[in-house]
Design goal:
Low-confidence stretches of chain B: 1-11
Number of domains of chain A: 1
Number of strands of chain A: 0
Radius of gyration of chain A: 20 Å
Strand content of chain B: 15-25%
CATH topology of the largest domain in chain B: Rossmann fold
Largest sheet of chain B: 6 strands, mixed
Structural class of chain B: alpha/beta
Number of domains of chain B: 3
Oligomer: heterodimer
Helix content of chain B: 25-40%
Number of strands of chain B: 22
Shape of chain A: globular
Helix content of chain A: over 70%
Strand order of the largest sheet of chain B: 6-7-8-3-9-10
Chain lengths: 319, 511
């Protein structure tokens, strides 16, 4: 956490990428491209905020892609059924929170490992949705649906505002709210957290529910961008999100990580794919390069942690 | 390579291990400033010193875990040019730590085999000879443990024995033991000491590190005292006593080891009547603690002391009610306990106490966030002020209040754990082994802090496995055995032997 070393490394990587693009593909910085890039990654960013909390707890949620799909479809169905877009959006959020609460309850109160719980919900929700929709896309959306009844530019401004607000709130919450402390304490040392009176089960439940709610919100923002809502939304989204959080320097074992790191991680991974296209690199390389970045970032963390640990082990502070 | 450079000396008197003028510094901090040490055949050589004196650095140099900046290491008169863990193992150096490092899901025989069958010369496993060898080695260390049992099902003490048997099988001659008794009961300690005696008689050399001076004085042949990275003295154990050792270690004399002072005893703060808790095996426990009183809780490990503390604190709630300041109360969770003014410093601070990855201020304010926050928002300045207050008052050595707790020495970590609970201004404080694994200097500082708390009228429940600590600090002493309170002794009536008699389950007459 000190000096934001990991965050600076990611920021430097982003800057490096920008410099390369500036010289070799200035078209990357066109207004349209940046807007597209932002809108495509805003849902990832929102879900990554929730995932940061989950990972800080030392847990994982791989069901976010499926939850994202369900929330999107729910929103579309609600809108097609005549609900105003605001109500449909709220329905998406409620469904997301409910899915998160289910995960949270199983993890916190039945003490099933989160990887197992969310693997189960990931598969069950995805297949349940496929069965329900028979793979059909949700079309025939009412005219007020796209861009939430405003224009694309208004919607973009709205999304920028909302995403920024959520980032700031999450960062401040972790820093200044007692529940933020509880998340760090629980993720670092559950036994010690219990002894200081933290209800660690409730914290787990709350964080998973919040992550679900944020996933619903992301689905809402995503759905209104298109005329149709594909029922196979969000395939592989969980990996994108987890990768971004990991690149941002959060320890997968819990207790360590920052919102700033996650934000930078999302930006780096989100920017690199289209950048390759602009640089004329085959799109097939995108995944390989992303994988390389993730590996590099995680390796750097591990090496950094080893150094810190070695320094701590030697107890150099004389009594 | 010359095997014996001193032909006139017989091979037997050649020290097993010789470390000469070892220096080592970490990031500018000099941990060892030319320390020298000789370990003879058939010798138990104790290494003592405060935390940070350089004991662990010196042992790490010997085991090859770290490389010294300068100095030489000789094993049986042969200089070790380059050292790393596998070289030191091949030279017959073995380290036994307080927490054994066996594979819990493998059997004893497999654990031993793993250490001995490194080369993989055969494709098949000869189970018969594996079991036979395990049995033979375990018998050699004077124990009877079924080699077919999974290591995880053994007690800590049994695991240690297996560990030592394993090392014997690997032909170890030099044993480094770092606080091997920290987690053992008294009876297990006796067994270990017999085993150490056996190793010594076989001609092995044992470098024994411990904070428990009584143990050291009873088992060691020679004692080397380290202070600030230097060897201050090397004495025959028969020639020194406890207070001299402490004097040598801290470089100042601690006049009274326990700063016990007379404190006016007030009203009853905590009263427990016939408390039971079936889930953790507590039966019919009754006692009371008054304000300003230190109530010592003695007993063997496993006698239910920690379980009692956890029950009182609501971690393993029971249906029994307790009386707090005369009022019947049921405590169902730590949150309730904290609200009612109970503080709890648990044993094993690394697992249950201090959150090592987090800062000092984070740790100190953790149980008391409401005092530094408003509307659920934490005021960082207030939090730092709170932390600074305790860092200064308790003389916690840290670079800053945002310094990571894990980088502090053990004694200072324990002070942080204590500060967290002092910050809630408790009426009742439960201290579970508050000085375990803490160096002598910090230990007496912690004793002093406990005394100061008592002077402020806090009722203190002090759990300790160290009898001198219990006897030196307590006003009254409750002794537990098998989940029951065997009896309560007054400060005047309590002696080591009366406590131990009760701890082993015999009622003590005439109290």
């Amino acid at each position: 956490m000190k000096f934001y070393k990991k965050e600076i490394a990611v920021a430097v990587a982003i800057l490096g990428l920008m410099v390369v693009l500036m010289f070799s593909a200035p078209g990357y910085f066109s207004r349209e491209n940046l807007t597209d890039l932002f809108l495509a990654n805003a849902p990832v960013m929102i879900i990554a905020l929730g995932m940061t909390l989950v990972i800080l707890l030392g847990e994982i949620d791989i069901s976010v892609g499926s939850v994202f799909a369900i929330c999107g479809v729910v929103m579309g169905v609600a809108a097609r059924g005549g609900s105003p877009v605001a109500i449909s959006g709220m329905a998406a959020c409620v469904v997301g929170a409910a899915c998160g609460a289910l995960n949270g309850a199983l993890v916190a109160y039945l003490r099933v490992p989160s990887i197992v719980v969310t693997l189960a919900t990931m598969v069950a929700l995805r297949d349940g949705l496929r069965w329900q929709t028979q793979g059909a896309w949700i079309g025939n959306l009412p005219s007020g649906f796209q861009w939430m009844g405003t224009t694309q530019s208004h919607y973009t401004v709205l999304t920028v505002g909302l995403v920024s607000l959520l980032i700031v709130l999450t960062a401040l919450g972790l820093r200044y709210l007692r529940i933020g402390r509880a998340v760090f304490a629980t993720g670092s040392n559950r036994a010690a957290a219990r002894i200081v009176g933290i209800d660690t089960q409730w914290i787990s439940f709350f964080v998973f529910t919040l992550a679900g709610l944020l996933t619903g919100l992301a689905a809402m923002l995503n759905s209104v961008r298109f005329h149709q809502i594909p029922s196979n939304l969000g395939l592989g989204l969980e990996m994108k999100v987890i990768a971004a959080v990991a690149v941002g320097g959060a320890a997968i074992t819990g207790g360590s990580g920052t919102v700033l790191g996650t934000v930078l991680g999302v930006i780096l991974l989100g920017a690199i794919g289209p950048a390759l296209t602009f640089l004329g690199v085959s799109a097939y390389w995108e995944k390989a390069i992303q994988g390389g970045i993730i590996l590099g970032a995680v390796a750097m963390n591990v090496i950094g942690n080893h150094r810190e640990k070695n320094a701590a082990d030697t107890d150099p502070l004389p009594n | 390579m010359p095997i014996d450079t001193h032909p006139r000396r017989s091979l037997l008197s050649e020290p097993l291990l010789k470390a000469r003028s070892i220096t080592k510094s970490y990031a500018g901090v000099q941990a060892l400033k030319g320390a020298s040490l000789e370990l003879l055949r058939g010798e138990v050589h104790a290494l003592v010193g405060e935390n940070g004196a350089g004991k662990s650095t010196l042992t790490k140099v010997i085991t090859g875990a770290i490389t010294a900046d300068s100095g030489t290491l000789e094993v049986c008169g042969q200089q070790v040019a380059r050292n790393d863990p596998s070289i030191s193992r091949s030279l017959g150096i073995a380290a036994v730590y307080q927490q054994p490092s066996l594979f819990p899901h493998l059997t004893v025989a497999e654990n031993i085999a793993l250490a001995l069958e490194g080369d993989g010369s055969s494709w098949t496993v000869d189970w018969k000879s594996r079991y036979a060898r395990a049995k033979e080695l375990i018998e050699r260390v004077g124990a009877s443990i079924d080699p077919r049992r999974p290591a995880g099902s053994l007690t800590m003490a049994e695991q240690q024995i297996v560990e030592i048997a394993k090392m014997l099988g690997a032909k170890a001659r030099i044993f480094l033991m770092d606080e091997p008794t920290a987690l053992l009961t008294d009876r297990e300690v006796d067994n270990l000491f017999q085993l150490i005696g056996r190793l010594r008689d076989e001609g092995a050399g044992i470098l024994y590190i411990s904070h428990r001076l009584e143990e050291i004085l009873s088992i060691a042949d020679r004692i080397t005292v380290l202070r600030d990275g230097e060897v201050i003295a090397c004495r025959d154990a028969a020639e020194v006593d406890r207070s001299e050792l402490i004097h040598l270690m801290v470089g100042r004399s601690i006049r009274s080891i326990f700063p016990k002072r007379e404190v006016p005893i007030g009203d009853i703060a905590l009263e427990v009547r016939n408390l039971r808790n079936g889930s953790v095996g507590l039966k019919d426990i009754s006692f009371s603690v008054r304000r300003g009183e230190i109530f010592g809780l003695a007993g063997l490990v496993g006698s239910g002391r920690t379980e009692l503390a956890r029950t009182l604190f609501g971690l393993t709630p029971s249906d029994s009610t307790i009386l707090l300041g005369g009022k019947p109360t049921r405590i169902g969770s730590p949150t309730e306990a904290i609200r009612r003014g109970i503080g709890y410093v648990p044993e094993d601070r690394r697992q249950h106490g201090v959150i090592l990855e987090m800062g000092v201020a984070f740790n100190i304010s953790l149980a008391n966030l409401q005092s530094v926050s408003k509307w659920g928002l934490i005021n960082r300045d207030k939090e730092d002020d709170l932390a600074k207050l305790y860092v200064d008052e308790m003389r916690i050595k840290t670079a800053s209040v945002s310094g990571v707790a894990g980088t502090l020495s053990g004694g200072n970590q324990q002070k942080v754990a204590l500060a967290r609970w002092m910050a809630i201004h408790p009426r009742i404080m439960i201290l579970d082994e508050p000085t375990q694994g803490v160096d002598v200097g910090s230990k007496s500082e912690i004793h002093d802090l406990v005394m100061q708390m008592a002077e402020r009228g806090v009722a203190i429940l002090l759990i300790s496995s160290e009898l001198p600590e219990i006897l030196g600090m307590s006003d009254r002493i409750g002794v537990m055995h098998a989940g029951r309170m065997m009896g309560i002794l007054s400060r005047q009536a309590a002696t080591q032997s009366s406590i131990m008699t009760m701890a082993f389950g015999h009622a003590c007459s005439g109290v």
